[in-house]
Amino acid sequence: MDGAEETAEESKRRTAVARALRKGRNGLELTQKALAKKAGIGYSTLRGIEQNRDEGKRHRPLTLKTLSLAIDRPEDFLNNIQEGQIGRETGDVLESQSEETSDELEPTDSVVLRSFLDAVAPRLDEIVIARLNEIVVPRLDKIDTVEVQVRALMAAFHSSKNEIAVDFEYPGSEQDA
Known about the structure:
177 residues; mainly alpha; 434 Repressor (Amino-terminal Domain); 6 helices; 0% strand
């Protein structure tokens, strides 16, 4: 890849960072000044990133981390966009587009959604496992009990042919002595 192609790719990434940052800020209904204060960075720094004014300049990872957290995204969200690590895995292309786009998802929309899903997935796994332990595991114990009782009935039936004298107890019920 020659220098001109790298510059074009980096420009696309900076544009994607600016768009994702603006979208995150607008989603929280914050002004640039309010977001800069929340992130603990200078207003001019935020404005420069969001307006993509520093052509050829890479944004500092710590700045992108604090901004990602300030827009309620995972800490590596904006840095991953800058590094081109988000988008390629799913075949998305981080292209420069005009602000007047159609209702279709922009590349940064899919980046935001993927990042959000990556952040939520571990918690969803925890919830599913907890519910399985609450609901399914206790029933498995009852299934084992029923299976043992059915086997006892079958054995009794085969041994006595016509006379079945087996104490059968339903799971969860207690027999009076």
